[in-house]
Specification:
Elements: E1 3-5, E2 20-25, H1 29-43, E3 47-52, H2 54-62, E4 69-72, H3 75-83, E5 93-97, E6 100-105, H4 119-123, E7 128-131, H5 137-148, H6 152-155, E8 159-162, H7 165-173, E9 179-183, E10 193-198, E11 209-213, H8 220-230, H9 232-240, E12 244-245
Parallel strand pairs: 1-3, 2-3, 2-4, 7-8, 7-9
Antiparallel strand pairs: 4-11, 5-11, 5-12, 6-9, 6-10
Helix pairs in contact: 1-9, 2-3
Protein name: Molybdate ABC transporter substrate-binding protein
Family: Belongs to the bacterial solute-binding protein ModA family.
Binding site for molybdate: 27, 54, 138, 165, 183
Length: 248
């Protein structure tokens, strides 16, 4: 079984030297848990996973959190750690991509066809839920798309910015927001929501999930997990969870 940790302190110590501690973006939780389970069956090594916003995890690693592997929902946070020399040199790789979508509560009446320019009027006095662009990649992509579509200034007063995509999803699932911007893969685990529209791929920077090994923690089990994620079996697990897996 994959152990899942949620913490903000950097004082936690690894349970065993051969455990693989993976810090991964919240939007990858099901996929990384599946990767960890398959890896444990193959190797016998335990995978300990901690999920949160990519920015939050990057800052924890910089502060000394005991991570072996970092999987981010975008390149900049991994590059930030790489340039600051917190990662093993040459270990940064892109592993997958995703689509950005707009969702609404399942019982909402949506126009057909759905036009992005109608979002401000459809919101009314309601809120548009997104991840905080300052440290949540999905939020940064959402902001970029809204700016490209000339909607940012029209909806910014209606935004509610949350710490990760899970919180964003929960808000619209409970009907507390008429719309939310999430990844397409997030719909696979969602309840009581429907797809409103898929944002054009050219409206935001390419969505790239990146992985790297944390400097000083490049042990045998860590190296095996890193290679496993990039293997055909690992890529197939990513595809099964809705990601567009990159070939090596």
């Amino acid at each position: 079984m994959v152990l899942i940790l949620t913490f903000t302190s950097v004082s936690i110590v690894k349970a065993a030297e051969e455990d693989v501690v993976v810090f991964a973006a919240a939007s990858t939780s099901e996929a990384v848990s599946a990767l960890g389970s398959a890896f444990e069956k193959r190797t016998g090594f335990t995978v300990i996973a901690s999920f949160a916003g990519s920015g939050t995890l990057a800052r924890q690693i910089k502060e000394g959190a005991p991570a072996d592997i970092f999987i981010s929902a975008n390149l900049p946070w991994v590059e930030f750690l790489d340039k600051s020399e917190f990662l093993e040199q040459g270990s940064l790789v892109r592993i997958a991509s995703n689509n950005l979508i707009l969702v609404a509560p399942k019982d909402a009446m949506l126009p057909d066809p759905f036009l992005f320019e109608k979002i401000p009027s459809l919101l009314g006095s309601g809120r548009l839920a997104i991840g905080n662009p300052a440290h949540v990649p999905a939020g940064a992509y959402a902001k970029a798309s809204l700016q490209t579509l000339n909607l940012w200034d029209k909806v910014k007063e209606s935004l509610v910015m949350l710490p990760n995509v899970r919180a964003v999803l929960a808000l619209v699932e409970r009907g507390e927001a008429p719309f939310a911007i999430i990844y397409e893969t997030d719909m696979r685990r969602a309840k009581n929501i429907q797809l409103a529209a898929v944002f054009p791929r050219d409206s935001h920077p390419p969505i790239s999930y990146a992985m790297a090994k944390v400097k000083g923690n490049d042990g045998h089990s860590t190296d095996l997990f890193y290679k496993f994620v990039r293997s055909e079996e690992g890529r197939e697990i990513l595809r099964q969870h809705g990601f567009l897996a990159f070939e090596n």
